[in-house]
Design a protein that fits this description.
808 residues, ten-stranded mixed beta sheet, 24 helices
C-alpha cells in the first residue's frame, strides 16, 4: 500500500513539490552563500598576503640608506629572506620644471622588493620590467589624483635631499641631478595599502631595480622587508637582535601581522552583515518551509479515515503523510547546495576582491554541508511531528473540542459578527482539513516585522556612524599633518597662525610614537593633559598628568588590564609606571608605514612619555621641538571646505623638508568599508517582508478555498458578498496585528543589541538609537500591506456561489 501511495502522491503533486523545493532552495542557498561568503571575505587578506609573498616585518634604515646596514640586518639569525626598497626625491617635470602639484612618494626596489617579495598587485597593465629603469607603476590613488594611465610617458627629475632642505627650493628649484623619461607600465596596489586608513594613503610610484642601480647615490631612505623563518614567533627575538647592531630607539619596525589584524577588523562589519543576513534567510526558509510542508500534510488529512478503513496502520498513515514533504526537503537541499556553490564566485567582497588569488567556484563544505543538514533535519522534524499528530487525529472530536474556545476568544475581542468570524478563522488551529492554521503565518509575519524594524534601526545607526566622525575618534574638524607624521610643527609659528584665524575655535598638538608594554608594542599619542581637543573618552576620564594613561579597548584587552591598573611603558630612554584612568576611541592617524593609533588600539599619554618626542625629523635631539600634528576644531557655522583652502595657504610657511598637509575628516578603513554597504541590510530585509506578505496572501487564498462550505453557510444565513470579503480582511489584519505586537519590541531590542555588538567589533563609540517615527511608519505600512494581501482572497470569497457549494 505504501508503494502505491508513494506513486500516487508523487504523480499528483510533483509540480507542487518542485515549486516549493525551488523557492525554499533559493532562499536557503542564498543564506549559505552569504555565510560562506563571510568566511571567504574575512580571510581574503590572508590569501592576498600569501600570494604576494609578504614580509613578516619591515625595518626602516636609521639615518638614510646604507647598504652595509641592510646587509647586516639580512644576516641576522632567523631571517629567511630580505627585500629592500629605497626612496628618492623624484618630481614630475613639466617643460623642464618640477610640478610640485604632483606630489609622489617614490619607492624603488633594491633587490627584488615589490617584485619577488611583497609583490606589487597589478589592477591595470603589468608590473614594470625590473631590468628597465624607464618603466614605472603607480598606485591607484596616484592614478586617480593625477590621471596617470597605462602607456603614458612622463619626464622625471631626481634631486638630492640637500636640494629639498634649501629654503628656496620650492620657489626656485635647481636643475635635477638626473632626468629620465619613463613609461607607465601598470596601476595597482602595494601590499600594505589595501586596508589603509584614509589618513595613511598617499600617491606612490614604484621604480625598478635597474633605476636604483643607476641612481643609488641619490637614495634618501630605505625600508627593509624581512621574511622570518619562524614567522610571527620570531619577531620578538629579531627585534632584540636589532639592538645589537643599531642604536636603541633608532629603528622604525612594522609587523605585517598588525596589517593582517587591521584588515580582519576592517572586514568584520561586512562579515557580520553577511552572517546576519544569512541567519535571517535561514529563519525565513524554516518558517516558510514549515508552512509549506504542513500545508502539504494537511491536504492528506481527509484521507486518514479512508486509509484506516482500508486497514492501514498508524505507521502507514504517518509514512503516507511524509512522502511529498520529504521529497520536497530533499529537493530543497539539492537546490540550496547548487545555488550556494554557483554563486560563490561573487565572493569575496571588500578591497581584496580585485586581487583575489583563488577566484572562481569555492565549495565551503563546512558551511554548505552543515547548513543543509541542519535545515533538513529541522524541517524533517516538523514533518514527522505533523505526521504523528495526523496518525492520532479524530477529526470530529478535534473540531468540537477546539473551535468553540477559539470562537469564544474571538467573540470576546470583538462583538461584530464579521470581525469575530475573521478573528476565529485566524485563531483556528484545529486539525480539520478545511482549517488553515495561521500560527505559522503569524510567526513568519512577526519575524519579518522584527527584521524590518531591526534593519531600519541598524541602517539609521550605520548612517549616524559614518556621518559622525566623533564616533570613530575624529573628535575635531581638521588636522595639520607635518611630513606624513615624521616632521614637526614649529610651536611659535603654529600658535601665531591659528590664533589669528577666527574660524579656529580651539586646537591641540600631538606627538606620535610607541612604547612596549608586556612585550606588546603600543602606539602612543602624546598630548598635553590640558588639551582642549581630545579623542572621545568611552569610559573613565582623560589624563591629568604624566603618571596616567588612557588606552584603547583592544589594547587594554590584549594586555589584560583595565581602569585603575598600573602598567610599565618601556623604551630606549627607560621605563615609566603609569596608571590606566580611561578607555578611549582613538582616531586612525599617525606616521605612515608604521603602526599608529587606530580604532581600539593605542594609548594617550603626556608628550614626555612618547619616545623621541624631543627629536626632529633627522633624529637629532632638539628640546622644544613642536608636535607632529595639530588637531583643529572650527567655530560653529564655519564652511569646512573654504577654511581648508584658507589653512593650506596660511600654514604653508610651516612646511618642512617632508612637506605638510591640512586634512579634513579621514576615515579608518573599517568605516570606509561599512559605508560601502549602507542601506544593504534594509533592502535585503525589505525582500523578506515581501516574502512574508506573499506568504500571508497565499495562506488567505488557501483558507478561502478550504473554507468554502463555511463561507457558503454564512452566505445562506444572510451575509452579503462584501461581508464575506470583510471576514477575510479581518483575518489578515489580526494576523498582522499579532505579528506587529511581537515583532516590533523584538526588533527594537534586537537591533540595539546587534548594534552594540557591531560597534564593539570595530571599536567605535556605541550609541544605538531607535526612531519612533520609523516604527510608527512600519506599523502603518504593515497594516496597509495586510489589507492589500487580502484583496485577492477577499474577492474570491465575495464571488462564492453558496447554492452550488452547499448542493455538492
Amino acid at each position: 500500500m505504501l508503494v502505491f501511495l508513494t506513486w500516487i502522491r508523487l504523480r499528483d503533486r510533483w509540480q507542487n513539490c518542485v515549486a516549493v523545493s525551488v523557492i525554499l532552495g533559493v532562499v536557503l542557498g542564498t543564506a549559505l552563500f552569504a555565510v560562506a561568503g563571510a568566511r571567504r571575505t574575512q580571510s581574503s587578506y590572508d590569501r592576498f598576503l600569501r600570494a604576494a609573498n609578504a614580509s613578516t616585518m619591515s625595518v626602516a634604515t636609521p639615518t638614510g640608506f646604507v647598504q652595509s646596514d641592510v646587509d647586516a640586518v639580512a644576516a641576522l639569525v632567523g631571517v629567511a629572506h630580505s627585500g629592500t626598497y629605497v626612496g628618492f626625491q623624484v618630481l614630475v617635470l613639466v617643460d623642464g620644471k618640477p610640478d610640485f602639484r604632483q606630489a609622489l612618494q617614490t619607492e624603488a626596489s633594491l633587490d627584488g622588493a615589490f617584485f619577488d617579495q611583497d609583490r606589487f598587485a597589478v589592477r591595470l597593465g603589468r608590473r614594470p620590467d625590473p631590468s628597465r629603469p624607464d618603466e614605472v607603476a603607480f598606485n591607484e590613488l596616484a592614478a586617480h589624483l593625477y590621471g596617470y594611465q597605462v602607456g603614458q610617458r612622463l619626464h622625471l627629475g631626481v634631486y638630492r635631499v640637500e636640494d629639498y632642505q634649501d629654503p628656496t627650493f620650492f620657489a626656485n628649484a635647481p636643475p635635477p641631478q638626473t632626468t629620465i623619461e619613463v613609461t607607465v607600465a601598470g596601476v595597482g596596489s602595494f601590499t600594505d595599502e589595501l586596508f589603509q586608513d584614509e589618513a595613511d594613503r598617499s600617491p606612490r610610484m614604484l621604480m625598478t631595480q635597474a633605476f636604483t642601480a643607476q641612481n643609488e647615490s641619490l637614495a634618501t631612505y630605505g625600508f627593509q622587508g624581512l621574511v622570518l623563518a619562524r614567522g610571527d614567533a620570531g619577531v620578538a627575538s629579531l627585534t632584540d637582535e636589532l639592538g645589537s647592531i643599531r642604536e636603541p630607539g633608532t629603528s622604525e619596525v612594522h609587523v605585517t601581522s598588525v596589517d593582517r589584524e587591521h584588515a580582519r577588523r576592517a572586514l568584520r562589519p561586512l562579515s557580520i552583515v553577511l552572517v546576519v543576513f544569512g541567519a535571517m534567510a535561514v529563519m525565513v526558509a524554516l518558517v516558510l518551509g514549515g508552512q509549506a510542508l504542513r500545508r502539504m500534510q494537511r491536504r492528506d488529512l481527509s484521507e486518514v479515515s479512508v486509509l484506516r478503513s482500508l486497514g492501514a496502520s498508524s505507521r502507514t498513515v504517518v509514512a503516507a503523510s511524509l512522502i511529498a514533504p520529504l521529497f520536497t526537503i530533499a529537493g530543497t537541499a539539492v537546490v540550496a547546495a547548487v545555488v550556494a556553490v554557483s554563486a560563490s564566485p561573487l565572493m569575496p567582497l571588500g578591497p581584496a576582491r580585485p586581487f583575489e588569488a583563488e577566484k572562481g567556484i569555492d565549495v565551503d563544505v563546512t558551511v554548505i554541508g552543515l547548513g543543509v543538514a541542519v535545515v533538513a533535519v529541522v524541517l524533517a522534524g516538523v514533518v514527522l511531528l505533523g505526521g504523528h499528530a495526523m496518525s492520532r487525529s479524530k477529526r470530529t472530536r478535534a473540531v468540537d473540542r477546539r473551535r468553540p474556545g477559539r470562537l469564544g476568544l474571538a467573540s470576546a475581542i470583538s462583538k461584530s459578527p464579521i470581525a469575530s468570524i475573521g478573528l476565529g478563522m485566524a485563531l483556528d488551529s484545529s486539525g480539520q482539513s478545511r482549517a488553515v492554521p495561521m500560527r505559522s503565518v503569524m510567526a513568519g509575519t512577526a519575524l519579518a516585522v522584527a527584521a524590518l524594524v531591526g534593519a531600519i534601526s541598524f541602517d539609521g545607526n550605520l548612517q549616524s556612524l559614518t556621518h559622525t566622525p566623533a564616533l570613530y575618534g575624529w573628535n575635531w574638524d581638521a588636522a595639520i599633518f607635518s611630513g606624513d607624521g615624521y616632521d614637526n610643527l614649529d610651536p611659535a609659528k603654529t600658535s601665531a597662525i591659528l590664533a589669528a584665524d577666527q574660524a579656529v575655535a580651539a586646537w591641540s598638538g600631538a606627538y606620535f610614537g610607541s612604547a612596549e608594554v608586556d612585550r606588546l608594542d603600543v602606539p602612543l599619542l602624546g598630548m598635553d593633559p590640558s588639551s582642549q581637543v581630545l579623542p572621545p573618552v568611552v569610559r573613565g576620564r582623560s589624563i591629568a598628568n604624566d603618571t596616567e594613561i588612557v588606552l584603547g579597548t583592544e589594547t587594554a584587552a590584549a594586555i589584560g588590564k583595565g581602569i585603575g591598573d598600573s602598567i610599565t611603558l618601556g623604551s630606549a630612554s627607560g621605563s615609566h609606571v603609569v596608571r590606566i584612568v580611561g578607555i578611549m576611541t582613538f582616531p586612525s592617524i599617525g606616521r605612515v608605514h608604521v603602526e599608529h593609533v587606530s580604532l581600539g588600539v593605542g594609548g594617550l599619554v603626556a608628550p614626555s612619555l612618547v619616545p623621541g618626542y624631543d627629536r626632529n625629523l633627522f633624529g637629532a635631539l632638539q628640546p622644544g621641538v613642536g608636535p607632529n600634528v595639530a588637531f583643529l576644531r572650527f567655530s560653529p557655522g564655519t564652511d569646512a571646505q573654504a577654511e581648508l583652502a584658507n589653512l593650506r595657504g596660511t600654514t604653508a610657511p610651516l612646511s618642512g623638508v617632508a612637506g605638510l598637509d591640512v586634512l579634513l575628516v579621514k576615515r579608518p578603513s573599517e568605516i570606509v568599508i561599512a559605508a560601502t554597504f549602507a542601506h544593504a541590510p534594509l533592502w535585503v530585509t525589505a525582500g523578506f517582508a515581501v516574502l512574508a506578505a506573499l506568504s500571508l496572501c497565499l495562506a488567505l487564498i488557501a483558507s478561502v478555498r478550504r473554507r468554502r462550505r463555511d463561507l457558503a453557510v454564512l452566505r445562506a444565513l444572510g451575509f452579503t458578498g462584501r461581508q464575506l470579503g470583510q471576514t477575510v480582511v479581518w483575518n489578515a489584519t489580526f494576523v498582522m496585528i499579532v505579528g506587529l505586537a511581537i515583532g516590533v519590541p523584538v526588533g527594537v531590542v534586537g537591533s540595539n543589541t546587534l548594534w552594540r555588538l557591531f560597534a564593539h567589533q570595530i571599536e567605535v563609540v556605541a550609541r544605538p538609537r531607535s526612531s519612533a517615527i520609523a516604527t510608527i511608519a512600519i506599523v502603518a505600512v504593515a497594516l496597509v500591506a495586510a489589507n492589500l494581501a487580502a484583496i485577492v482572497p477577499a474577492r474570491q470569497a465575495r464571488k462564492l456561489d453558496a447554492a452550488v457549494i452547499l448542493r455538492s
